[in-house]
Amino acid sequence: MTRDTVGGGDRQAAAEWWHTDIIDMEPNRITFRGYPVEDLIGRVSFVEMIWFMVVGVMPTPGQAKLIEAALVSGVDHGPQAPSIAIARMSMTCGGSLNNAMASAVNVLDDIHGGAGEQAIGLFRDIEQRTNERVDIAGACREGLAAWRHAHGPIVPGFGHRFHQIDPRAPRLMGLVAEAAETGDVSGRFAAVAKEIETQLGEAKGRPIPLNIDGATAVIFSELGLPAPLGRGLFCLSRSVGILAHAWEQQTQGGRNKGPLPKGWLWQYDGQSTRPYPSR
Amino acid sequence: MTRDTVGGGDRQAAAEWWHTDIIDMEPNRITFRGYPVEDLIGRVSFVEMIWFMVVGVMPTPGQAKLIEAALVSGVDHGPQAPSIAIARMSMTCGGSLNNAMASAVNVLDDIHGGAGEQAIGLFRDIEQRTNERVDIAGACREGLAAWRHAHGPIVPGFGHRFHQIDPRAPRLMGLVAEAAETGDVSGRFAAVAKEIETQLGEAKGRPIPLNIDGATAVIFSELGLPAPLGRGLFCLSRSVGILAHAWEQQTQGGRNKGPLPKGWLWQYDGQSTRPYPSR
Amino acid sequence: MTRDTVGGGDRQAAAEWWHTDIIDMEPNRITFRGYPVEDLIGRVSFVEMIWFMVVGVMPTPGQAKLIEAALVSGVDHGPQAPSIAIARMSMTCGGSLNNAMASAVNVLDDIHGGAGEQAIGLFRDIEQRTNERVDIAGACREGLAAWRHAHGPIVPGFGHRFHQIDPRAPRLMGLVAEAAETGDVSGRFAAVAKEIETQLGEAKGRPIPLNIDGATAVIFSELGLPAPLGRGLFCLSRSVGILAHAWEQQTQGGRNKGPLPKGWLWQYDGQSTRPYPSR
Amino acid sequence: MTRDTVGGGDRQAAAEWWHTDIIDMEPNRITFRGYPVEDLIGRVSFVEMIWFMVVGVMPTPGQAKLIEAALVSGVDHGPQAPSIAIARMSMTCGGSLNNAMASAVNVLDDIHGGAGEQAIGLFRDIEQRTNERVDIAGACREGLAAWRHAHGPIVPGFGHRFHQIDPRAPRLMGLVAEAAETGDVSGRFAAVAKEIETQLGEAKGRPIPLNIDGATAVIFSELGLPAPLGRGLFCLSRSVGILAHAWEQQTQGGRNKGPLPKGWLWQYDGQSTRPYPSR
């Protein structure tokens, strides 16, 4: 439904240029997808509001519990993660928390923040390959082959360079199993992830277990989230750790914090010292 | 407590360079301020996790409800807000959601995102001025005078350029009143804000009501939040609307979305056209 | 050549982690790719320094003239460009010039800043298709077909949504022609671009002339620049206009500058106002 | 002078909202402060264009030489500088060069990028204190006292935490001296800086020599640059090193480059491991 717009003509064209389904506003009135803001404040949780704003529907309580769990699990992975290190370094350069958060969230890109998005795409592709003739094992084989043909050998959502078993994944998968029992989710994507894990382990001869990106991708796939929003929600989640570390750094102090202790130098591998030729 | 560090010497110096109280990690183990991550997932809400990560303590249920309300209330104020417009424009330039979120959060600076932080500082200053001899009205007069002397005439957290009554503020203040009755907060900062509102209205001869920045500042002041984190938590809140709008823009499509409809031009006020002089 | 590193062991591992060929440093000594900084200051131009730092070789004077021209031509395309608008909006939100520059440069992504990079890739691909059996026209036909198969119908570097003839392109191509006469460049990539322009125009039945992205891509291809650096150098160039507009906005003043004049609203196309259901 | 604007009314209001003196445009025509772009390309250097765009006047050849020197001198200070480290880390997270440049430029804030701006302010303040009664030594004493009263003990532009003598500073000051001899600059600000250096050294009992921020601040003060643009031009200069390092990192490869070698951990100083209490 379209609000009446005073003015018409050019002003209407400008209003259309910025059209949205998300928020409507008049003086003293703000509605989000139709609900007055004062109805939402105090009645919906922050996580329900996140889902409602981004996806457009209000989650059920059982779904909200899964979303809470996914968002809690990704907040931080320590200062060796580029996002967290950058947050801390930024705060020693003189800007404010919003600037540090921006520089840090900016690096949650394809490699640092994209695995969940990619895993949702993979899981969904495999789920759609299952049908009367193709069982889940066959669909996984097909889907994994197609993924590797298009994207190379790394399968997103499995294995971890630091943990043998990522402690967040089994806990999240336990919650998905509970939600499948109560009918809040179907459990189909949990089954897909389990089968991929089995096939990867058999091929490698050692376990390549589901990691946090894979486990949150199961949750978001079960809830019907468009794949790119997997990255978007991870950005919201990691922003918490980014903020916590930026703030801790501010309380610790320091100026122009480099990656290594003060006075340490990098290794130079380039040209020997040489005079610049006169011309 | 300090984890044993293998290596010592230079490696220990590097570990110290990145010391933190927030997160500890070993292969297959992650703890946040001492709690294993698998204990937290599924048991604490995202908002409890936010507060615990950033402030260091777990909020009570009554406090968590206020924090939920504050975070829900700030998610979005429409495409006329620079943060939201920038999120939408960014998504048409070819980057990913994390990039759009970064450029948008980056502008939540002193003017666009700093009023809450400033209001916390003002409220706290006034609260500390009250004592046996100075009542809240006197402390407000002193505090407002000190603020204006240092920062100029604009009092953060009051009045709105668009709304006469910001619909979010009374709802938030109602929740603070409820929490004061149950003892989850003291209500002292709500009283400070109310008195400021009264004094501003009397001086202007018309109401200058509390706005969302002031109302969330009351909540955060009641909960003992350091002032700069008022901005930090607003960044988390507004990131939700930023993500929602960035994603909606992506589904709408468009390339290189400028501020005005395609083909419209800006007004040029500079030098007339002139040939570049030969030299 | 590797500088001696005091310490060895862990400290050496940390130094290697940050190894570079670009800069070496000791107290009171800085060298860039071997040249002492004090040799370069006052003797090389900023553009020569840019090329030397990024590409690793010092350009000839004739090459430097082309690089100057390419960098001059891309500085600004007015406030309808998202990068320029974002720079101006950012400056009204309370941050500093570096913050505004960051948010603005961030959007010079695949669509807003990637055409030059893509055109270099296309030109280089076509140039490599020419051989004893395939003339330039044939190579263009092959290369354009391959490009469209991989990337869709839009050919980067040709046509403009605002200009029929982009006034920067013919001027730049004139300079390339001069440099080809003096032997500073081969002119092979100018010929490729000319042939693409011809083929696109014949197919469309109207001219689809080379634009600034195409013309700078010709220059950078002639000079052997890796394609991604086409975007990188455009970022340096556009940063000039970004800075100029951010600063002009600061002198104009304004707070929280939205895309449309104050008081204008966007069009809302979503759900009608509805009460939030009690649960 | 104002271009005729087709439309009037609301469209004119939108055009005014984005008014500028910098660039005018019609189809097939682009002018910068009145000069057609095709006049500038091939005739002005990139540095002349930078100054013309940002400051509004074309520098003399002698002035342009100083600006070239200032911009050359600040391009890079190695991977221990947060800006350079962030550029390198960002490139391993999956984004493009523009994203890495954005995150890196963003940290050139008050501490990492603001010293030049602050030094210009200090030099200008001191220069204005000199008059018939107050000589330069007296003005320096007054100006330094006022600076310290307002900003604390650190005097911007002098001393260096790594170099005893910053090798860039004497070279830049030599060029300023040459320009003063030819009349391209007055030399007044070089004298101010020299006097500050003397007074700081006498007070400390050891040399606190001018550093690069101070030397470039002398140049920019001599040329009449508004202080905030000192930071802006440093951002342009350092963007060169940022780009060079981001690109080198891309050619080196790596994924999610943390600050320390892979497998190294930070020191944890927080709460011991504890179970999360049941509630």
From TrEMBL, chains A, B, C, D:
The keyword Acyltransferase applies. GO terms for molecular function: citrate synthase activity. It is an enzyme of class 2 (transferase). One of its GO terms (biological process) is tricarboxylic acid cycle. Its EC number is 2.3.3.16. One of its GO terms (cellular component) is cytosol. Pathway: Carbohydrate metabolism; tricarboxylic acid cycle; isocitrate from oxaloacetate: step 1/2. It comes from the Bacteria. InterPro entries: Citrate_synth-like_lrg_a-sub, Citrate_synth-like_sm_a-sub, Citrate_synthase, Citrate_synthase_sf. Keywords: Acyltransferase, Transferase. Belongs to the citrate synthase family. NCBIfam families: PRK06224.1-1. This is citrate synthase (unknown stereospecificity). It comes from Marinobacter oulmenensis. The lineage of its organism: Bacteria, Pseudomonadati, Pseudomonadota, Gammaproteobacteria, Pseudomonadales.
